[in-house]
Structure formats: structure tokens, C-alpha cells
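note to self: the first set is below, dont mix up w the second
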Amino acid sequence: MINFLKIVFSALLVFMCYKVITTSLESNLFEQWDFLGSIPWMRATLWDFYANIFIITLWMFYKEKSIILKISITILFVCLGSIATLAYVLVYLFKLKPGEGVKELLSKR
């Protein structure tokens, strides 16, 4: 299961980096912000994003000990979204020892 998660999360990380980079080259978010903000589905998507970030941040606060690390990772989550989230989870997936599973991934160390 852990190897499967490593593969899936790695593939998603590469895909999200690709999508963000190619979209950034095509379109400037800051120039289109007023238009995007006027679309109800865009506003709903942002609320959905921040609700997910809140949940993931709570889990990260549970796992991490250092307040500096907690604040830094929270900033990365908010600024980079799924790219930071995927990278964070991948770090923990690759830190797992042989024989450890999802229980150890989710639990506090």
C-alpha cells in the first residue's frame, strides 16, 4: 500500500507542477483576478480549497513539534496548495521504515 501511495502521490506532484507551470505561462492570475472573482464557481472553489487546507493544516499541526515548522508549512500549504500538500505527505511516506503502514503515516511521532 505504501509503495502504491508513493507512486500515486509522486505522479500527482509531477502533474500538478506541470499544470501550474504551463497555466502560469499561458495566463497571469493577477491580471485576471477581478474576472475570476466574479465567477460564483471560482469563489466556491476557493472556499473549498481553504476548507481543505484547514483540515490538512490541523493534521500537520498534530504531527509536527516545532512551531516554526508548523508556521512555515502552513504558509507553503496556502501558497502552493496541492503541490505543498503532496510534497509534505511524500516526505512522510519516504520516511516510513519497512513494515510501517498508513497507521504510522497518520500517527504522531
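second set (the one i keep forgetting abt)
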Amino acid sequence: MKDKIMDRWSTYEPFYVVLGDKKIADIIITNHARSRWIDRVESEKTGFEDICAFLWDRLKKDQVKPYYKNEKDVYVIEEDLVMVAEFSVLENEFDIAGNPLHKMIIVTFLGRMSEVIELRDLKSYYSWLRHSRRMTLIKNSRKRK
């Protein structure tokens, strides 16, 4: 998916999709993200190619948006599916204007907001998780003494 033929004959332009200020030319799915995809999103189409095809399609249709306006790593797909992604610059890959292209590294899929109500407010969800883990650690340390 890196090369797309342009209108002019025998001219190639690196294929990319714009997401915010990034020009995405490659998608990488981590093993953790794939396992979360199987657990929380889809149980039939679970291959790396299936997930990438889904993400490319949604990126091209402009259905991937940042979760919060200033957030750079949490995204919502189709206003439902929440994922965490990181970006890095592709070496020796540039658009026609000479701007760098990026690869999107999918860290994890958090789930669908329609199924997991807590995902509608991530900040309170994460603070609740931290608090519950902290309380679990405190309880476990009391048991050991």
C-alpha cells in the first residue's frame, strides 16, 4: 500500500492517509493489539491483514478521530471503537513536497464504547483502574505481613 500511480504517466507517489498532522503510509499491529482485537472487537477476522484492511478503510473514509481534541495517542473509529496508537517517522519515505511519512503502530484496542460504558470517559476510567489496582496492592501487602 505504499505506492499509488498518479495521473501522470509513470509517476509514483507514496500512498498515505492524513490523520491530524500525520501522513500515515504504513500500519503496524502489535501482538498485544491483535489479542485485544480477538477479545474485544472481532472473533472471526483476526489476521493482521484483516485488521490492517479494516483500519486502512476507516482511515480513507475519515472515520478515525482523536478521542480528545488534544490527545495524540487515543483514537475512536466510527465513533465507537477505541484504540491506542503511536507514530514514528518512516526512514527514507517522503511525499512529493518532501514532508516525512509516518507509520502508525497500533498498541491496543480498548473496546467498543457501545459495549463497555466506562470507555465513554477514559480519564475517569483510568483513574478508577489506578485506584482499584492500588487498593488491590495495598490489600495484598497487608496479607503478606
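remember for set 2: The two ends are 57 Å apart (CA to CA).
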